[in-house]
Amino acid sequence: MGKESSVMKQYHVKCIKINKISTMKLNRLHVFLAAGLFLTFSFAYGQADKQSLSAKMVINADLGKDVISRHIYGHFSEHLGHCIYGGYWVGEDSEIPNTNGIRNDVVEALKKINIPNLRWPGGCFADEYHWMDGIGPRSERPKMVNTHWGGVTEDNSFGTHEFLELCRQLNTEPYICGNVGSGTVEEMSKWVEYINFDGISPMAEMRKKNGQEKPWGVKYWAVGNENWGCGGNMTPEFYADQYRRYATFCRNYGGNNLLKVAGGANVDDYNWTEVLMKKIPHWQMWGLSLHHYTTDWWNKGPATGFPESRYFDVLDRCLKIEKVLDRHINIMDKYDPEKRVALVFDEWGTWYDVEPGTNPGFLFQQNTIRDALVAGISLNYMNQRCDRIKMANIAQTINVLQALIFTKDDKMLLTPTYHVFDMYKVHQDATLLPVNVLQNSYYEYEKSKLPALSVSASKDKNGAVHLTITNLHPSKKLTLNAEIRGSNGSSLNGMLLTAETMDACNTFENPEHVKPVKFNGATLKNNILTAELPAKSVVMIEIKQ
Ligand code: AHR
Predict the structure, then answer these.
(1) Confidence category of residue 52, pLDDT binned at 50, 70, 90
(2) What ligand 1 atom has the least distance to the C-alpha of 401?
(3) Which residue ranges form the domains of the chain, and what is each CATH number?
(4) H-assigned helices in 293-352
(5) Which residues contact ligand 1 via a Cβ below 6 A?
(6) Angle in degrees, CA 246, 248, 253, rounded to 5
(7) Could you tell me the pTM of the whole model?
(8) How far away, in angstroms, is 323 Cα from ligand 1 center?
């Protein structure tokens, strides 16, 4: 190209200027648009994050058949850490208000939740406990080493009489676990005679001499504990034979029929259940137990101060209980289609690292809203399977593992798990109602997801329908639509347990940080129940006429 004319030059300069201006304008436009888009997306994302989840279900209030045994709401207290000593037992001379050595505050709290049964003395402790060491004048009782739990000295001041006095005060059924691992058939047989025989016999005389004239009439009796492990490291075949022998000499006295429970499987040891169902005559076994803890045995993690990954993991493990229960139940169904043998889920709950600075053998852990969700979900599962599960025991009542109560000197506090038992007590001996979940929502974390909602429903003897629901999503509320068929109830009541943070808990400085409040988030119109369940919440809804 030749030289440009001055006119052309001017033209080009103008064009360049115009282009520059347009480019600048375009750039600004881009920035503007990008910012706009960013804001729109983040707003939308933020909104989506806060958006509620939803679920739909049908509850058949007129189709109930099976009764939820109140014994599903049972408890377990072992000679472990401060469960018995300091938890229940302070002794008659203590300044802490007590009745016959047993703390009044604890008895009052447990009576409020209608504690239906109490398993004792263990756990692993049961298979090294010799009951005769725990009777007679306390000052003369021999001491022993509690080898399983901290190697501390057990002075046997809490024994058979003290335990049965505790059950009397609580108005609860005792559930005693006898020693198979290191005890003899004779020892177990004499314990039953001591407790239940009303005639003239050496054991009955000894009981009377120790201050108890009448037998106690204990019904629930476990023949050993975890005999695949701490209870003797037995094979299922060997234990089944031992069970038949021990159970033979645990006699029924008077009109008292002992309901004997065989020591069951650990988590997913389905072979254990299979062998016991096959080898033990069913007339000799009222129940077969199962133990399952919600934990990662190799890396338990802390009870508080955990990241979301831990929150997700614990709830994920809890939801897996469903499959474990169903597989054991399927095996039992194969050998016992009439469901005469009860599944007794007599150890369940969360298990974390002990609180820093506490004795590792005492298993003391905090209890948060995450534990409340585990309790709510697990109890919903058990309710749903009440045709087979007739008894369960959370581990453990006071100061140990997933405790309901903490004590410290003369102080006592109620944990979030306690409040779940309080809210769920409406199901005790009520009729299970079929619930059909038509649509659930999910809690997604990284590449995994969990169903957000769990539910069970029952109808009590007065016709009131109760729903217990959990929303395990940590940040989203859940809107529930439930059609209640076959009911003309119109009055609504409810309780809600939730918290701001995933690890919210109660401490002696702030003992009522997590506690239930009245639930006002539900409406009922033309038998359609609509409820807004806050994030990480446990809710109980009552529908009455
Ligand atoms: O609950 C604590 C222990 O866990 C029990 O003693 C034992 O049965 C189980 O392994």
Answers:
(1) confident
(2) 1
(3) 55-64+434-544 (2.60.40.1180), 70-432 (3.20.20.80)
(4) 308-319, 321-335
(5) 78, 122-124, 225-226, 347, 395-396, 401
(6) 115
(7) 0.91
(8) 22
337-369 confidence digits (pLDDT tens): 999 999 999 999 999 999 999 999 999 999 999
Tell me if 392 sits within 8 A of 119, measured CB to CB. Answer: no
Residue type, 320: K
Nearest to 258 by CA among 231, 223, 210: 223
CA-nearest of 451, 139, 128, 504 to 306 is: 504
Give 80-129 as a DSSP string. STTSTBTTTB--TT-SS-EETTEEHHHHHHHHHTT--EEEES-SGGGGG-
Q: Are 463 and 473 in contact (CB under 8 A)?
A: no
Q: Which residue has the tokens 């025989």?
A: 197
Count of other CB atoms within 10 angstroms of residue 114: 17
Q: Which of 261, 291, 398 to mutate to test the pocket of ligand 1 (most atoms within 8 A of CB)?
A: 291
Q: Is the pLDDT of residue 37 over 70?
A: no
Residue owning the nearest CA to atom 7 of ligand 1: 123
Tokens of 536: 């990480």
- What's residue 26's pLDDT? 45
Q: Which atom of ligand 1 is nearest to the CA of 347?
A: 1
Q: What is the pLDDT of residues 369-418, one digit of tens each?
A: 999 999 999 999 999 999 999 999 999 999 999 999 999 999 999 999 99
Q: How far is the CA of 79 from the centre of ligand 1 (A)?
A: 11
pLDDT of residue 274: 98
In total, the chain counts a number of residues equal to 545
Cα gap 244→160, rounded to integer Å:
25
How confident is the model at residue 48, as a pLDDT? 45
Kindly state the average pLDDT of the residues 310-318. Answer: 98
pLDDT score of 17: 45
Measured by CA distance, the residue closest to atom 8 of ligand 1 is: 123
Closest CA to 529 of 473, 465, 476, 471: 465
The rounded distance, in Å, linking the Cα atoms of 215 and 206 is 12
Residue type for position 206 = M
**Nearest atom of ligand 1 to the alpha carbon of 229:** 10
Give the C-alpha separation, 377 to 370, whole Å.
Answer: 11
Residues facing residue 465 across a β-bridge: 459, 543
Give the DSSP H or E segment for 433. strand 431-433
Per-residue pLDDT reduced to its tens digit, 165-197: 999 999 999 999 999 999 999 999 999 999 999
Q: Give the residue-averaged pLDDT of 423-448.
A: 97
Q: Region 230-256: what's the mean pLDDT?
A: 97
End-to-end CA distance of the chain: 97
- 253 C-alpha to center of ligand 1: Å? 30
Residue nearest to atom 4 of ligand 1 (CA): 123
List, by residue number, the catalytic residues.
226, 347
